[in-house]
Amino acid sequence: MLLAFYRHLKEQSYYFKVILNRGYELDIMELFSDIVQEAMGQVVDVQQAIDGVPAEIHWRYSIAAHFSVASGWLQNDFPYTPEFMAEAVLKLTKEGKHYAIL
Where does the record place the Transcriptional regulator TetR C-terminal Firmicutes type domain (predicted)? Predict the structure, then answer.
């Protein structure tokens, strides 16, 4: 699913860049969240708490991370292949290596 997402993002990059550039006029994060939740709702229970963290907090954290990574990749003209991006994001997600750099 992630690989298909990154391939689609690259193939339709012109349109996604227009959307990102107009993001201040749109609630782009909510739109992204709705699209992903609709897709993921068929695969996982997006309402279930994970390790004691309420689903809403976990969901918003995950959406913000995925949105930021994907938009950075798009705005930097694809420095990595869609395959690499999908593998990297999946690795971070599956292995739980979410380290804050703050």
Answer: 2-94
Rounded distance, CA 6 to CA 85, Å? 7
2-50 confidence digits (pLDDT tens): 788 889 889 988 888 888 877 665 577 777 777 777 766 655 666 778 7
| Structural contact between residues 14 and 74, judged by C-beta atoms closer than 8 angstroms | no
| Residue in this structure with the two tokens 């992903």, named with its chain if needed | 36
- Specify whether the CB–CB gap between 66 and 74 falls below 8 A: no
pTM over 0.85: no
- Other CB atoms within a 10 A radius of the CB of residue 97 amount to 8
